[in-house]
Each structure stands twice: as C-alpha cells, then as structure tokens.
Amino acid sequence: MADLLKANSSSDHIAPRPLPDRLRPRELEDVAGQEHLTSDGMPLQRMVAGGRIRSMILWGPPGCGKTTLARIVAENSGLYFEQLSAVFAGVKDLRSVFEAARKRRQNGEQTLLFVDEIHRFMKSQQDAFLPVVEDGTIVLIGATTENPSFELNGALLSRCQVFILKRLSEDALETLLQRAEAIEGKQLPLTEQAREMLNILADGDGRYALSMVEQVLLQNDSLDAEALLDFVQKRAPLYDKKDEGHYNLISALHKSVRGSDPDAALYWFARMLAGGEDPRFIARRMTRMASEDIGLSDPQALPQCIAAWEAYDRLGSPEGELALAQALVYLATAPKSNAVYSAYKTAQKKAKATSSLMPPKHILNAPTKLMKKAGYSQGYIYDPDTPESFSGQNYFPEEMGRLSFYQPVQRGFEREVQKRLDYWARLRAKKSQDYD
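User: That's the sequence. What structure does it adopt?
Assistant: Structure tokens below.
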C-alpha cells in the first residue's frame, strides 16, 4: 500500500491527474473488493504468478476495477500491450492491431490486447478475434458490463476464461476513501452519517466514489448527510439510465422501499422517470422487491406489482406511471421479511452439496414391477385421506434427515404461516411416535 501511495503521489506537482487515476493500483494485492480473484491462491493471482496469461473476459459493473486488473495483468505478463475501446474502434482498427501483432509474433514477441466495452462490437466483428486468439497471435482481455453469455459469441467465449467481478462492498469503498485521505494528507470533511451516505450513493462503483471524494475534498466546511446529498446532486453528472446515475438511483429507490419510507421511494421514483428511465425497468425491480424484501409477510405485494406492471403496459405513460406509484407505496408500507429469500438461498447451498442423494423411495412412483419390487412408493400415505390431511411423512433424502430452511418472521401474514408450521410440527411429532 505504501508503494501504491508513493508511486501515485510523487509526480502530482508536475502533472496533476484525477484522483481515481492517481489511486489506480499497480499490484493485484492492492485491488480492493475483488479478493475472490486476486488474493493468494485465487484464479487471477495464480495466473499472474505463474506467468502464463490466457485470454479472458472481465465481466462486472462500472467502477469495479476491470481496466485496473487488465493493466496489472499486462504489466506482469511481459507481453506487448495494446488497448482499444469498442466504443470508438472499428474493423479497420482491429486489422491494424492484428497485423502489427503478427509481425511481432514473427520476431518472437506476443501481444496482449485489452478491449474495453468489448460487448459493443457486433457479433460479426467479434468473429475477427477468433483466428488471432486461436493461433496465439494475441492474448485477449475483454472488459464488459454486460452478461457475456448474451453479448459475446459462443465461439469467442469458448476461447476465453470469464472472470466475474463484484460491485465494491462497503468495506472496499471505505478502503478507497482511506487511501484518498492518505494520498491527499487530510480527512474528508464529512460527518459519520455523511460518510455512510457517500458509500450508499456510490453503490459499489469505486470510480464514482473517488470522483465524489475529489469534489468533497475541495470543501472547507464539514458536510452532514443532507448537505452532501445537495452538494453531489449539484455537481454529479446528468442521470444516465445506462451508467452511474442508473445504479445510484435504483439503489436509493430499493433501499427506501426496504426501509418502509414511501415518501423517499416516490421521490427516487420521480427522479428516475424525470431522467428518462424505462418504467418497465422500475416495474421489474419492484417485482423483485415484492419477493425479496416482503415475501409472505404480505402475499398481496407480488400481485400488486404484476398488476401495476400490466397496467403500465396497457396504459403507457403518463397514466400507467400512477399504477406503478400505487404499487410502490404498497411495497413501502408493507411489512418486510426476507425469510423466503433466505430459506431459498440456504436450500440452494444444501442442494448443491447433496446433489447426488435420491428422494426417499416411498414418495417415488412405481410404474413397473421392478420398481415396486425395489420398494418404490411402498409405504406412501396419501395426505388427503388422513383425518388432518397431513401424513407427517419424511420428504427429504433418507441420508439427510429433516431440515428446516424457512423461518417466518412475526410480522404480517407470516405470523399465520408460523401457526400452521407449528401445528404441523406437533402433528409430525405425534405421528412419528405413532409410527415408532
């Protein structure tokens, strides 16, 4: 870390550079927030340490370190480095780079080509990479914010290793803030709440966080959360529904709903619409909120969102936006629970860890004599035939035993769900004793 600060501050008096550029790491160990790739023993670290760089795609959201990682890999590869942006480059530029790379290869030198926003190339343009990647003329590092499964040719993907980068966590963003304070030699003039607000506004984008820091460092007076919000709004770039503003505002909207603040939710909703956001994108996120943050604590939340989404599709703007606003207020005022979400995630992990276990034989159909002889469906009890319409049988693999994933909260409708689960648990225990 000391080397990073020294290298990036020694020439600032000669040619000042933007703070995000001055703080750009030069070693993998200094890259914040991508430890699943860069720490000891992780894929990218092993590749760089081994000195055998292969073509790769770096996929992640804006400001997570894709370009930084590409530069670090290039500097440690010993290969000739070329860089293109698919936003500006065309077929002519690719041909020029490929031809120069072929000449270097004849002289025993390989080329590492970094292509930013590689998904901007059309599929036909992406085909041009295939022969030069295949024969080793170039080592390709492509960076993209879009899902490569949809935006890149399958043939190109099969020749590259895909590394998935994460949005920066709050801890990673805090690391960047501390580095900025160290290189500038002063603390950010922010209250504790304002510092937290800055991280929230950054929403995982390190580049945007440091751009805000650079503006805040020009201030002499300390800013609280409200003052910071006003300050950043006055100086932040215009809302771009495909870039920073998009991520900042949808995060603010989601967290306002999760925090049961309908007024703040309506404000961010209006801000997004005023910036030109597609209301269908907001409807999609609201539907996600209904399942992720509310779930069975209010089973009507999901139908409300689906109905509002459909109403918008039928009415269009501006009339349909009122239906979305109505559903948004419903979500914000509904009781919150992530019990189903948490249960599903836990069940996913368990399913992956026990993917070879068979269901118990008594709940399997037996359409053949052989299967009947093997015990399939033997002992199965048809629940509606029991007095309580509940048999209490085991439906988990016999090797696992019964597990509990879903833990309802004591709010909203989930209180009633808990009563049902408790009732069935008592019946199950009684019937288990009867079976024994």
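Residues 25 and 31 are 6 Å apart (CA to CA).
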